[in-house]
Design goal:
Distance between the termini: 64 Å
CATH superfamily of the largest domain: Response regulator
Largest sheet: 7 strands, mixed
Strand order of the largest sheet: 8-7-9-10-11-14-15
CATH topology of the largest domain: Rossmann fold
Radius of gyration: 22 Å
Number of domains: 2
Number of strands: 15
CATH architecture of the largest domain: 3-Layer(aba) Sandwich
Helix content: 40-55%
C-alpha cells in the first residue's frame, strides 16, 4: 500500500471516529410552566432549551475527555404553582436521575426547587428567577440572569435620571417575592436619588380588579408608575390603567415582556428592563435570531435566549471540568469565573449570581425596541 493511500485511509478513519455516535446519555431536566397562567414564558424557555440540545446533539454530542454524551432533555410542567414545580423537580431527580436541572424561571417556584436540588446534590441553573433567595445559602444553584437588586436599582435610576421623574407610584404583589422585593428596592433607590414615592399600593396574587388601587395612584399624580407583577395580573392592570386614562409613564420589570403579540397593545409606550433584545448588536445575537426564526418562525424572547444560555453554560462547565456527574458539575460551577452567552457577558468570580447588563426596551408600534444597555 502506497503512502498516499495509507494517509487517505487514516484520514477517513479519523473522520469516522469524530462522527461516532455518542457512547452515553446525559439527562438534563427542564422545569418550566407549560400550562396555566404562566405558560407563555414556559414555552419560550422550552424553545431555548430545545435549540441548545438539538444543536449539540447534531454536532455529535458532548465530548467529555474520552467519552461522548448524547444529551436527553426531559421536560416537566411546573404549571403555575410552587407545589407543582417542586413535584416536577422531585420526579426528575428521584425517578429520572437527571445530572442537572434548568429552571424553573419564576422565583416563587425556583426557591423551593433550589432547596430540593441543594439537598439532593443536583446542580441547578435558573434562567429568569431574579430573586436573591433563589441562590442564597446554596453551593450548587446558579443563575444566568441579573438579580432583582440590580434590576430594581436600574429602573429607579432610569426613572429619576433619564426620564427626570420626581414622583413615582408602585403597584405590587405583596405575596410574590419577586414583586415585593423589587418594589422595596425601587422605592429605596428612587427616594435615595431625590425622588418621592407618592403612592405604593399592594395586592394579593390574582386579584381580579385594580381600579380602587389605581384610582388612589391617579389621585397622587405620579409621573411614573412601576408595575412589577406577573403576566396574568399585568394584563388586567395595564388594561385598567388605560381605561382610567392614567397618564403616568409606565415602567416594568422583566416580567412585562409578553411573548404573545396580541398583548403588545396593552404595553404600548412602556419602558421595560429585560435580559435580551433581538436588536442588540453582535454576531452571536444575529446568529441566535436566525436559528430561532428557522426553528419557530419568530424571533426569540428573553426567556428563550436565557434558557439557551443556561444550557450552554452547563455544557461548557462539563467540558472544562471533564466530568458529567452532578458532583463534578457542581465543582465546575464553583470554579466558574465568566461565561459569554447570547444575552451577554456574565462575570461570576466566585458568586452564583453573575454581574451582568440590564437591557431596557421601549414598547412602541407593537414591538419591543432596544433602547439602552446598562452595565453593572
Amino acid at each position: 500500500m502506497n503512502s498516499a493511500r495509507l494517509a487517505l485511509l487514516l484520514l477517513l478513519a479519523a473522520l469516522a471516529a469524530c462522527r461516532r455516535p455518542p457512547e452515553a446519555e446525559l439527562r438534563v431536566g427542564l422545569v418550566v410552566p407549560l400550562s396555566g397562567s404562566l405558560q407563555d414564558t414556559g414555552i419560550s424557555c422550552r424553545e431555548g432549551a430545545e435549540l441548545a440540545v438539538k444543536e449539540l446533539n447534531a454536532a455529535g454530542g458532548l465530548a467529555v475527555q474520552d467519552r461522548r454524551y448524547r444529551v436527553q432533555l426531559l421536560i416537566r410542567d411546573a404549571q403555575d404553582t410552587p407545589e407543582q414545580a417542586l413535584s416536577a423537580a422531585q420526579e426528575l431527580i428521584n425517578r429520572d436521575n437527571v445530572a442537572a436541572l434548568i429552571g424553573p424561571p419564576f422565583s416563587s417556584q425556583a426557591i423551593p426547587v433550589a432547596h430540593l436540588a441543594e439537598r439532593s446534590g443536583i446542580p441547578m441553573i435558573v434562567q429568569l428567577a431574579t430573586n436573591a433567595e433563589v441562590t442564597a445559602g446554596t453551593s450548587c444553584v446558579f443563575r444566568v440572569c441579573f438579580t432583582d437588586g440590580f434590576q430594581g436599582r436600574v429602573m429607579a435610576l432610569f426613572a429619576r435620571d433619564r426620564l427626570g421623574a420626581r414622583r413615582a407610584a408602585i403597584l405590587y404583589d405583596v405575596a410574590n417575592p419577586f414583586s415585593r422585593d423589587i418594589a422595596d428596592i425601587f422605592t429605596a433607590t428612587f427616594t435615595g436619588a431625590g425622588g418621592r414615592v407618592v403612592a405604593r399600593e399592594g395586592y394579593p396574587t390574582g386579584q381580579p380588579d385594580y381600579l380602587p388601587e389605581l384610582a388612589r395612584i391617579q389621585a397622587a399624580d405620579p409621573e411614573v408608575l412601576f408595575l412589577p407583577g406577573l403576566h396574568p395580573d399585568l394584563r388586567r392592570q395595564l388594561a385598567q390603567v388605560r381605561s382610567l386614562g392614567l397618564t403616568a409613564q409606565v415602567l416594568g420589570g422583566d416580567t412585562m415582556y409578553f411573548r404573545n403579540p396580541a398583548d403588545l397593545p396593552l404595553v404600548e409606550g412602556a419602558y421595560i428592563s429585560t435580559h435580551y433584545s433581538p436588536e442588540m448588536p453582535g454576531d452571536a445575537v444575529r446568529a441566535f435570531n436566525r436559528m430561532h426564526l428557522r426553528a419557530y418562525e419568530r424571533l426569540p424572547t428573553p426567556g428563550s435566549a436565557l434558557t439557551y444560555d443556561a444550557c450552554q453554560l452547563l455544557f461548557s462547565v462539563i467540558r472544562s471540568q471533564g466530568d458529567a456527574s452532578p458532583a463534578g458539575i457542581c465543582a465546575g460551577l464553583r470554579k466558574l469565573h465568566s461565561f459569554e452567552g447570547v444575552t451577554g457577558t456574565m462575570i461570576f468570580a466566585g458568586s452564583p449570581d453573575p454581574a451582568k447588563s440590564v437591557v431596557i426596551v421601549h414598547a412602541r408600534d407593537r414591538q419591543y425596541r432596544f433602547h439602552a444597555r446598562i452595565d453593572p
